[in-house]
Amino acid sequence: MRVPHPVISLGSISFHLGGMMVLPLLVGLVAALFLEVSQVEDTAPTLLLFTGVYLFPVFLMQVIGVTRKTRIELAERRAMKDDRRDRGPTPTRELLAVIARHAGVLTPRGYSLLFAGLLFLFAALGLRWGDLGLVATMGLLLFYGVVGVTSFLSAFLVSGFQRASARERVSIRREMSPAVVLSGEPGEERFHLRGVPVPPGYHLLVEDVLPVELGSETRHVVGAAVRAEEATVAGKLRRSPRGLYRLGPATIGYQDVFGLTRISVASAASCDLKVLPRFRRLEIIDPPRSKHQSPDVVTRPHRFPNEDYFRFREYARGDDTRRIHWKLSVRSGRLTLRLPESREQSVRNVVLVLDAFLPGSGAGHDDAAGLADVLDRLVEVWISAAAELVDRGDSVTLVAAVDDGFGQLKIEQLSGRTPRTRWQDLGARARWQDRFDLPQLLESVGPATDGIAISARFDAPPPLPFSGQRFTWIYYPPEVALGPAEPPFWQVWLGTSTFLGVLAAFARLPHPVGSDENTVGARWRSYWFESARYDARKRLRLRLRRGAQAVVGALVAHGDTVYRLEPGALAHRLVGVSVGAKGGTL
Known about the structure:
Elements: H1 6-34, H2 44-84, H3 92-103, H4 108-127, H5 130-166, E1 171-177, E2 180-182, E3 188-194, E4 202-208, E5 218-222, E6 231-236, E7 243-247, E8 250-256, E9 262-268, E10 271-276, E11 281-285, E12 302-303, E13 309-314, H6 326-332, E14 336-341, E15 349-355, H7 372-391, E16 395-403, E17 409-415, H8 420-428, H9 438-443, E18 450-455, E19 470-475, H10 478-481, H11 489-494, H12 499-507, H13 520-547, H14 551-557, E20 561-566, E21 571-578
Parallel strand pairs: 2-10, 11-21, 15-16, 15-18, 18-19, 19-20
Antiparallel strand pairs: 1-3, 3-6, 4-5, 4-8, 7-10, 8-9, 12-13, 13-14, 16-17, 20-21
Helix pairs in contact: 1-2, 1-3, 1-4, 2-3, 2-5, 4-5, 7-8
């Protein structure tokens, strides 16, 4: 978990524990300095006394609640350190972060009510409008009353929730139905709640931030019915692209009926969702011709009626003219020789490598942002090519750097004799990474006669330690994978390029009325998130301009067979670009 900077934590603590209490007094003081408030000067001592008597208990309840919740969390941290034998005091930075998190109970609606009340109070003093002053006072009284009660009760709610959980009186279970789906199939997220205490005047909140690839969010509001009987809340996923997704833990908390304050009492309920890639049909378009008689790996020989298997190559001086295929020569515009394949082919050992190496895509980086669909297509071609080769009788080994199921990256390999659902499972755990390049992947397998790499590299590969006969690339050009250049960011973020569209984008609410995502803070966070993804795409395009367009030339110059991948909805096309120096491998 990322710990905020100490200055940010101190600022949050100062505002929530002190600033909110003196803001009404500061507004009154500023109004007295710059506005004509002689009509309320006689009542100023009474107002100050009333404000002090009302705000001091609120401040006291806040201090008690924050102190108690902080002690509970620090005790839990010490227990965890004892289990890890990592004893020691809590660093000051983490201590400030804990206090700031427990002190900040306001929701965007709460901030709106506070500043609106202060604004109305200032306007009422300046305009000498008594009714507006009454509205402002009632709004501020409601705000501070709810903040005080919530801050005080939150400490007891947290401790009570933990005691009930320890005694197994509270049950919060999360599941995906189904937990394993094929790419594109619908999925549903479910929470089963039993015995969760919900105090009067509050709602139970279940929230979680889902991966952006799923295009969904988790937010459920539950009433007091969960105290007496089990309740189930569910939500469908909008998207289900290939991948392994770890969901949770969800944030369990309470929100008052006015929506002004929100407290978190626990982080619980985790589950996994695995979306398997689909097998797609592969179409070989114009395979590169070779003068070598050795059969390639992917392109299958054609069988004609009443004839044996045949392969074709361009006519060379000295060849037997009786083997010229005149019809094919006329269609192709060159003399083409027909070579009979009458001998039985031996089983070939093929290593099939998924190349998902992308520098800058490791932990803490976002250079792979927006490239999930590119990897999805590579994985589909990877497992589909394996199925094609196994059906022909070849011995296949699939190799990739994948997630081990616990967030760690490792190299895994599977034999083609294993069930194909295991291939899909391996493909679901593949991800962009910057740790294992092709040499490490190839060194992890034994000797092979043929090698195939499924790749969309932005940079030329290093020399490969491959000792087999042939090596083939199925290459997805980055300029095609990235698509057309993005328009200016403001057009991407607002979704329009016209002047009237821009005005409408600022005027309309991006979410339903009353949603917290409509607030300025939420929209600002959305802006920074989308801006980071946009910058990541720009960095990839810059890398593309620096040399990725020459990758195909480097592969051809290296003497490898190259096929260009053209993804499709139902089938993927492999278009021949160049035959290798040792003959076609595809």
